[in-house]
Write a structure and sequence with these properties.
The protein has 684 residues and is α+β, with helices and mostly antiparallel strands. It folds into 3 domains: 172 residues, FAS1 domain (Roll); 245 residues, FAS1 domain; 230 residues, Galactose-binding domain-like (Jelly Rolls, Sandwich), CATH 2.60.120. The chain contains 17 helices and 37 strands. It has a 6-stranded mixed beta sheet with strand order 2-1-6-5-4-3. Strands 23, 26, 28, 29, 30 and 35 form a 6-stranded antiparallel beta sheet that branches.
């Protein structure tokens, strides 16, 4: 919800009674607001030295004051002198308390003295960069739970909301209250905040360890050694961020990924959630895990076949997932070039499948089709299992489903149960869930994953999520002038893809509502390509494997393989659906709502596009003859890795033909044979 503050003609001073900084902020002269008489962020801070002198010292010693004097567009969250003093005392106290006898480990905060002059230059740099964004945001432009532009430390800042005793709106940035807002100057905007935003350099496992209400999860994470798998932050060997590749039309250059960051997400149960199950210590948890994973019999906690290891590893994903990006919902990108709510039908469920460190899938869903859960984000949701009396207590043979991911704003506000909650770590995100998360083959294969599993091809590559490529904000990226907002993906950048020829040119094209694509974006390959994607780990079984794409005369002729086995004759992706070789007929032109035509198309190896997604914001993909699904093969997929391979077999290719591939579908054969599935569900 967009939060509006006081009139833009004055500074909104929303003071918590416990703070003593209000009088200083009230003294800031606002008479020059919006006249742009030459103030920069730096000069504004200097003019109000009585409020910001400590922050100015940090900016100078951190090497960022000159940046705020220069031309540009920045947002600066400026803590007051009192806020800086409070921060230094608190962080020094945390550090010193961790040195006392009985402390489990030393907590390094970067602050070892309550005195500003003792703060290191390097820490000043980190603090400075935490409080500066390379883009301008007024409070009226801030909505959701995160500011979409990363700060100069390449970290997203979270937003939460509240009201004061007079029911006036309050905005918190990384838990720091905005007490004066929207001071526009020549090179950006300044918001005054009541606290220093903690520039924690904690990895995700260390961040979990600092939250006392996650003590059991943290202990299990450390005991299994899985904390060691959550340490990576950045691939410093990647040095191609300043390179540019030729674009898909050959007339402009497009950017390589700027960086190669790693990212992780942990879905965590609180101690109270465990306590409610009679779990009060690690031994209790291990005993319960052995019930949940009876075949995991290795007593070594660090073994992949240990029950505790199985349990914890199923909570960990190698993508950094903000709450607002768990699924494709209410996402607006690139000056509204893409709006997810124009791309989906109103009641279409929004979902993503994530592969965990256990090597198995979780499904995250916002069930828009279910009025009970429309505002919730759930893990392992299935409409086939219900509990009318309490929809948040759904189980199958003791295994919870429809597990709720708590809204981080609600968690942050609940200081009784979640005191000190910090969602964002240096290299990941932490989400609190309301029930134990357990992988059970009967539940997953029989219910949760017994459906059309649709994966946007970009979701197969974690690097695209972790590096602001998939669903990009576009910040700090110089795109080509074509308007496709392309990224060139060099060989070796994505671990779940393999290039078998040097001529393979793989691109990610950012979302456009005007395109006939599942989530607006698409993958594109050109050249003498031969490349592969690793197929997500699904439960062992027989599946129909399909590819969704948009057909037109610029497309390619491709040979498909699964595990290096040819899956049929080459497919000409240039052929429109209305061609007799495919036989597409609009449902409105049939006597049976397209039922017979569906069968005829399926016999030729094709399906119409899904009925839950729009082309151009108004035409269902099912009703558009350029949107197709191609059946690649039907194959038994055992446990472990399987690869989907694509090879250019167009003999007259001049390097300009496009292999556009939008999404992958993996469909259990047993599901397709069920007679109780509605026509509507089959067409989703």
């Amino acid at each position: 919800m967009k939060r509006l503050f006081h009139s833009i003609a004055v500074i909104a001073v929303l003071v918590i009674a416990s703070l003593t900084i209000g009088s200083c902020v009230d003294d800031i002269d606002t008479s020059n607001r919006y006249t742009f008489t030459g103030h920069t962020i730096a000069s504004f801070l200097e003019e109000h030295n009585d409020v910001y002198s400590s922050f100015i010292t940090i900016l100078n010693r951190g090497g960022k004051m000159n940046l705020l004097k220069a031309y540009g567009t920045y947002t600066c969250f400026a803590p007051t002198n009192e806020a800086v003093a409070q921060y230094l005392v608190e962080q020094d106290s945390i550090y010193r308390a961790s040195l006392l006898p009985g402390s489990k480990k030393v907590i390094w905060t970067g602050v070892t003295s309550p005195n500003l002059e003792d703060l290191s230059d390097s820490m000043c740099t980190v603090i400075s960069q935490t409080h500066i964004l390379p883009a301008t945001y007024l409070t009226t432009e801030m909505e959701g739970d995160v500011i979409p532009t990363m700060n100069l430390n390449d970290r997203y800042l979270t937003m939460t909301y509240g009201v004061d005793e007079n029911q006036r709106s309050l905005l918190f940035i990384n838990s720091a209250q905005v007490i004066a807002s929207d001071e526009e100057v020549e090179n950006g905007v300044i918001h005054t905040i009541s606290a220093v935003m903690n520039p924690s350099s904690n990895t995700i496992s260390a961040q979990i360890g600092e939250m006392k209400f996650l003590s059991l999860f943290s202990e299990a994470l450390e005991k299994t050694g899985l904390d060691n798998l959550l340490q990576d932050y950045k691939d410093y060997s990647y040095t191609e961020g300043d390179k540019r590749g030729i674009g898909i039309y050959g007339d402009v250059t497009v950017p390589y990924p700027l960086n190669r960051y790693y990212g992780f997400t942990a879905f965590c149960e609180s101690d109270q959630t465990f306590n409610d199950l009679g779990i009060f210590n690690l031994n209790d948890l291990y005993a319960k895990c052995k019930e949940w994973y009876p075949n995991a019999t290795d007593p070594d906690f660090t073994s992949e076949n240990n029950a505790l290891y199985k349990f914890i590893s199923y909570h960990l994903v190698n993508k950094k997932l903000l709450f607002s990006r768990l699924v494709c919902y209410n996402i607006k990108l690139l000056n509204n070039l893409f709006n997810s709510e124009s791309n989906y039908t109103k009641r279409a469920d929004r979902y993503e499948y994530y592969e965990t460190m256990q090597g198995t899938l979780i499904k995250v869903t916002r069930p828009m089709s279910n009025s009970t859960y429309q505002t919730d984000v759930l893990i392992n949701y299935t409409p086939m299992l219900t509990n009318t009396a309490n929809p948040y207590e759904v189980e199958y043979n003791g295994i919870p489903v429809n597990i709720k991911i708590l809204d981080p704003q609600d968690v942050k506000n609940d200081t009784t149960n979640y005191k000190g909650f910090t969602q964002e770590a240096l290299n990941g995100s932490i989400h609190i869930i309301n029930h134990p998360l357990i992988y059970n083959e009967d539940v997953m294969a029989g219910y949760v994953l017994n459906e059309i599993m649709r994966f946007d091809f970009s979701s197969l590559l974690p690097e695209l999520t972790n590096n602001d490529i998939r669903w990009t904000s576009g910040n700090n990226v110089v795109f080509g002038t074509r308007g496709d907002y392309e990224f060139f993906l060099p060989d070796g950048y994505c671990k779940n893809s393999k290039y078998n020829t040097d001529e393979t040119r793989l691109y990610y094209l950012s979302p456009h509502t005007s395109w006939a694509n599942y989530q607006g974006d698409e993958m594109m390959c050109l050249g003498a390509f031969d490349f592969e994607y690793r197929i997500p780990h699904v439960p062992a079984g027989t599946y129909e494997i399909r590819m969704g794409y948009s057909a037109n005369s610029n497309r390619h002729i491709v040979q498909f393989y699964v595990d290096d086995e040819i899956t049929g004759i080459p497919v000409d992706l240039r052929i429109l659906a209305s061609n007799a070789l495919i036989g597409w007929v609009n449902d409105s032109r049939t006597d049976d709502n397209g039922v017979t035509n569906d069968k005829e198309m399926k016999n030729r190896g094709f399906l119409k596009g899904p009925s839950t997604t729009y082309y151009g914001g108004s035409t269902l993909l099912r009703n558009y003859d350029g949107a197709l699904r191609k059946v690649i093969t039907t194959k038994y997929l055992s446990e472990g890795d399987h690869w989907l391979r694509f090879k250019n077999v167009k003999e007259d290719d001049d390097g300009k033909a496009q292999f556009m591939h939008d999404y992958l579908e993996i469909v259990p054969v047993g599901w397709m044979r069920r007679e109780d599935i509605s026509l509507e569900d089959k067409r989703k």
